[in-house]
Specification:
It is a single chain. This protein is an all-alpha fold. It has one domain. About 80% of the residues lie in helices and about 0% in strands. The chain has three helices and no strands. The longest helix has about 40 residues, at about 80-115. The termini are far apart. About 15% of the residues are buried.
Length: about 120
Amino acid sequence: MREAGIALLLVLALAALALVQLLPAVRIIETGQALMLGAAAVGLPLQVVYFSALAIALSGRRPEGWYWRSFDHHHLLTPVQRRIVLPIFTIAALAFVAILLGIVVTTVGLIDLVVEA
């Protein structure tokens, strides 16, 4: 698994190099910011919905501190509750990954801008 992570990082580094060669730095920064903000606009409200849905689903049997590691308590959900709560969790988690990707793209653009100067 570690090797797959290293290979993925290498592929992402090569993609970043190609991106820098094809687009101007300002365009890369704008793209990263748009990705970051768009994902945050979707992900942050979904986090509120997810935690509310999970709190309602776990009402009466919520462990203390359940919100700190909420995913550790998904096994307490009934099958019907899982069909409601887990898709929200998945989409919010993917939005978080998109936010991180936007940060990486913006950083690549900033590095390119500094190197060009």
